[in-house]
Amino acid sequence: MDDPSQGGNPRRLTAANPLAGRLTELREGGDLCDDIEATCRRLEQTEDLLQALLPEEGRRARLLREAAELESRFPDSQRRPSLFGALVGVKDIFHVSGFATRAGTSLPTGLFAGKGEAASVTRLRDAGALILGKTVTTEFAYFEPGPTCNPHDPAHTPGGSSSGSAAAVAAGYCPLALGTQTVGSVIRPAAFCGIVGFKPSYDRIDSAGLIFCSRSVDTVGLFTQDARGMQLAAAAICRDWTDAAVVCERPTLGIPVGPYLEQVPDEGMRHFERQVTQLEHAGYAVCRASFLADIDDINRRHRLLQAGEMARVHREWFSRYEHLYRPKTAEIIRAGLTVRTADLERARAGRIELRTAIRSAMAAAEVDLWICPPAPGPAPRGLDSTGDPVMNLPWTHAGVPALSLPAGTADGGLPLGLQCVAGYGRDEALLTWGIELEEVLKR
């Protein structure tokens, strides 16, 4: 990793740190305490600039103590759980034992106290992971950004709302991080930061124990450095994960042409078409099929659903602490308070209708995966916006699994991604296919 304080490139704070490699080293006799010491040194060198994590006094001592406890529980390296010793960043809307939940807001933290640990966090602990710390989020996982910058260029956003989680993995702080996606808060920041982001099928990861933005669409997601590490992490945390080794044939890739794809500006489409050509040259069959012609209606329905459900989560807090909410958060809550219950129910029903439409369209076009841009372009300049999640919205609304893979760079050197979307429940197949797709996109 470049160290700005030692003459390295101050614009680039990234470091490769794949999960599978780290786990193998620990199984083969690597020293967990050495790993923690190296991570803490990295934080000392770069975190003042990156600001991916919430500050924690005594982080190093806590981690060393927890590492010693973990090693004493599992002295036999051959009998250790699957994520033994992996450091994990956790978005600060999850409740984590021993940590306050702040949710990126100025509201009193006591409002969120007394909640049990998030089920997904406990699941990771049971698999042997250690919590590096809480990662920065936008206020209540909406659009008001925190201070985190993009590790590839601190003048640009890392994306949101899982900004700190994506940046922490990209910077090599941790090989795995938890985020959530209500519209595009896993796939978009993964693309902006040049890493892998996975939003599984809706509710495939238990979402109990977090502050919801919109319960009907909120999905717990993951960040890793590579697709193979994502497969390891997903197997440890997703409900009823099964061996996907039977998925051996290359998928047929579909491009959803029409109004949905037309939301991408010319430059973004130029980058995307370059990726498509790369896949075709590698032997992938690509089919262009008209789909999502009603994207404007889907966008409106999703935004109504998000506003209405967020307002219901915050109704009591907002009545007491409206003055402490940041402007964009207050605006959506006010709008959501006007949403009628009947309209909410229709919006919820629309999710299943779209899920069915996706399955039918894929069958008709004989495609296994949709491929499309994960964002209109690379990370925008500035930290006052987290970018536009419009390219992720329909897939989140339908609850189907999506994967963002690193896919080259834009003209200015910022990372680009490719968004891959499978049918509902085909998470295992998506990640298996993603491993080979990642290798092709690296060439």
Structural class: alpha/beta
Helical segment count: 13
| Average pLDDT taken over every residue | 95
Order of helices and strands: HHHEHEHEHEEHEHEHHHEHEEH
The number of strands is 10
- Report the β-strand fraction as a percent range: 5-15%
In percent, how helical is the residue content? 25-40%
Low-confidence stretches: 1-10
Task: Give the CA-based shape.
Answer: globular
Largest sheet: 10 strands, mixed
- Spatial arrangement of strands, main beta sheet: 2-1-3-5-4-9-10-8-6-7
Radius of gyration (Å):
21 Å
Q: What separation lies between the terminal Cα atoms?
A: 23 Å
Helices, strands, pairings?
Blueprint: H1 19-27, H2 32-50, H3 59-73, E1 87-91, H4 119-126, E2 130-135, H5 163-170, E3 176-181, H6 187-193, E4 196-199, E5 219-224, H7 227-237, E6 253-257, H8 266-281, E7 286-290, H9 295-321, H10 327-336, H11 341-365, E8 369-372, H12 393-398, E9 402-409, E10 415-421, H13 427-442
Parallel strand pairs: 1-2, 1-3, 6-7, 6-8
Antiparallel strand pairs: 3-5, 4-5, 4-9, 8-10, 9-10
Helix pairs in contact: 2-3, 7-13, 9-10, 9-11
